[in-house]
Here is the input.
Amino acid sequence: MTFIITTPLYYVNDKPHLGSLYTTIICDSIARYKRLRGEKVIFITGVDEHGLKIQRTALKNGVSPKEHCDKISGIFKNNWIEWDISFNKFIRTTSQEHKKVVYEFYEKVKASNDIYMGEQKGWYCVGCEEFKDNPDNSPSYKCPIHKKNLEWKNETNLFFRLSKYQGAIEELIQDPEFIEPKERRNEIINFVSKGLKDFSISRTNLDWGIRVPDNSNHTFYVWFDALLGYISAISSDDKNISLDLSIKSGWPANLHIIGKDILRFHAIYWPAMLISAGIKPPKKILGHGFLTREGQKMGKSLGNVLDPEILLNKYGKESVRWYLLKDISLGSDGDFQDRRFVDIINNDLANTIGNLLNRTTSMSRKWFNNQTPSISEKNDNEIITLANNSIKNYLNYLDNYKIDKASNEILNFATNVNLYLNKKEPWVLIKDDNNINEVKLIIYNVLEATRIIGTLIKPILPEFSNKILKQLGENDISNKDWEESLKWGLLPESIKLQQPIPIINKLDYE
Ligand SMILES: [Zn+2]
Here is the structure.
């Protein structure tokens, strides 16, 4: 079984912002988790490069659209490498391979008699690349998302018979698994219930796009082209890339993770296009919320845009990952607050987890000849039950893509292990030689629990995980079966522990 997960193909009008980083980090942690569970994963990301907005941005910058796209696409790819994103495919919609798949797909939709020529009149938002309803019919009507004036368009375009798929889409969205979270699903159900209208899939007077083969003065509508990137990406490295090959290599996608603003395209247009072409729709669409900063919407005009590059240099990738994955409930809107950020990193990672590791390895080194203790028996049901419950909850959360809940489960477990240590007070017990076996067992248990924390946190914070496990004497981490290593009691006895060093630096308020 292949597990296919995708970020949206990001629009290259500008370099990555915090929202695109957020989506990509979510996908990365799920992809890492699935790989650890032994699944073959194809993690797709990439860029959506066509459309009027790109053409205009390039013109404004005094470069050709191609030059503009090469530059921004390069920035996206390099950014994801800097953030250590474990993507398997990076698709550019300007590639020849992608174009071939678009043509093959178009022929299939045409063969289903779902393409016709019609009149497109309406108010268009170039930012959304979407026609908007304009109930007032006023020329100054603005896009509710971009707050910019809409443009009146009156063109002869090719249309896709979306209305024909009313029943099929209704049936699809009835499945509670298809769209998450349920608030998003309800929005879509509500929208679909008003009746689906055909939509135009081509533009005239727009050069920067893929030419429609049988109507060469038309280019494909950017969404019709871009959505297909999820499929062309699959066989993009192959010499004989084709629609069929991509489909055979693992389609349908298991999970599209997107921002809630592009839900309609993914949950309605895209599945209908696929059904028309005789291809299965994706299995799940998960729409996450928007990010604000200190309670305010971020925007260029407000001057409060948070640049991921600055966050990376200032805090490091793992701190940012932890904040975004743990503190924001996946599916809801989230807020980025500097003070809260510093508090969370210091409390969760430096104190609760880092300090637990640090002080316990220090005690073990001091009392047991720089080694993990040797023990006569490994039974202490209190802590083993705690560990097993946390592991069970954690796996269950991640199987259901509840990353914030999974992260909090690790943190709760670490808090409980700290409580266990404080309650047992081995630093008091050690003063009496008669207690030595009890102290050995306590220290072993806490070290073992910390090893489990380090193992569990791997898909969320891969580097942090490696640092924890290394300090516990595990050197060859990559070859181990991850699930197997969650079993209690695998920490070797009497192995050398290195000098403890902080696994994460505390942050200061600025
Ligand atoms: Zn808009």
Observations:
- The CA atoms of residues 7 and 429 lie 53 Å apart.
